[in-house]
Amino acid sequence: MRRVGSPTVRKGNSAKLALPNGRASDTLAMKITASIITLNEADNIREACESVAWADEILIVDSESTDDTRQIAEACGARVITNPWPGFSKQKQFAADAATNDWIFSLDADERTSAELRTSIDQVRGQNEAQLADGYRVARRAFYMDRWIRGGGWYPDYQLRLFNRRRGHWGDRVIHESVVMNEGTRVDTLCGDLLHYSMRDPSHHRQMIETRYAPLGAQQMYRDGKRTSRLQRAAAGPAAFIRSFVLKGGFRDGIAGLTIAKLAAHHAALKHSILYELQKETEL
Questions:
Q1: The dihedral sign for the CA sequence 74, 135, 130, 7
Q2: Quick check: 61 and 38 in contact, CB under 8 A?
Q3: Can the peptide bond before residue 215 be classed as cis, meaning omega within 30 degrees of 0?
Q4: pLDDT band at 19, cuts 50/70/90?
Q5: Burial 158-197 (b: 16+ CB within 10 A, else e)
Q6: What does the mean pLDDT of the chain come to?
Q7: Which of 27, 28, 45, 80 is the most exposed place for a label (fewest CB within 10 A)?
Q8: Distance separating alpha carbons of residues 246 and 262, to the nearest angstrom
Q9: Using an 8 Å Cβ cutoff, are 125 and 28 in contact?
């Protein structure tokens, strides 16, 4: 897998040409739609849109927000579509299908593109079609408890976010959705990080685990044919803690790393407990 882009911009790269509104020049071969799915993201959507102002189109697919998400997005120049919530992967696929351009850069409302990542994308956009890969993955770095996280399995957390929709699609998953590329396609890695501001604090982190990640994770495991046992339920939490704090280097992040490891243990234990209950329901 090739790594693409660097902090140094090549001279004469047409990708650096820009229109007065900040959008990319029409001379570029790769036209990109930046897609963002939203639900009550008024606190995040302006910065998210500003983060991808370089895109040829910003597309917001909103799940009937009751705050000012849509109005703020429109004020930022985004095209806004309202679509009732069908689930994460289906909503992102809806956005990809609705985009004006074949090249999709998918961003969550709590994510931002770093300057280095934008430079890498600019360099790719300056290439001719024969040089392009079919998709590009990026490293995602999380900001948590007032610091950028290095360990615990949270970094580099590669995500495939820039792709040609003719050669890939969002996989059918209820949680931790990802792009699935067609057979025979090529995926390269871009330099620069996608910056993630997902958890406000440990309390918010725990809430997300208990209301979203663990229940949906258990559902996905059940759909995938995975099953658990009483022994696995008991071991899941301690194993997750050791994996996060020791094996994945969470100790390097101090108190934040310890908190992440403790909540990883809570997440794993709860997910296996929910999966165990799902199994029992089907046996009745």
A1: positive
A2: yes
A3: no
A4: very low
A5: ebbbbbbbebbbbeebbbebbbbbeeeeebbbbbbbbbbb
A6: 91
A7: 27
A8: 12
A9: yes
- Crossing angle (nearest 10°) for helices 214-223 and 254-283: 50
Please state the separation of Cα 38 from the chain's center in Å.
Answer: 13
Structure tokens at 200: 């406000």
Per-residue pLDDT at 28: 61
Contact in structure between 181 and 135 (CB atoms under 8 Å): yes
DSSP 108: -
Q: 217: part of which helix (H) or strand (E)?
A: helix 214-223
Look up residue 262 and give its two tokens.
């403790």
Q: Which of 114, 81, 83 is nearest to 99 (CA)?
A: 81
Taking Cα atoms as reference points, which of 26, 27, 34 lies closest to residue 121? Answer: 34
Q: What local confidence, expressed as pLDDT, does residue 282 receive?
A: 81
Grouping H, G, I as helix, E, B as strand and the rest as coil, residue 19 is coil
Q: Which residue segments constitute the domains of the chain, with CATH numbers given?
A: 3-196 (3.90.550.10), 202-283 (no CATH)
Cα gap 205→173, rounded to integer Å: 21
What's the rounded Cα separation, in Å, for the pair 167 and 177? 17
Q: What is the DSSP letter of 17?
A: -
DSSP code, position 55: S
237-283 tens-digit pLDDT: 999 999 999 999 999 999 999 999 999 999 999 999 999 999 988 87
| pLDDT per position as a tens digit, 203-240 | 999 999 999 999 999 999 999 999 999 999 999 999 99
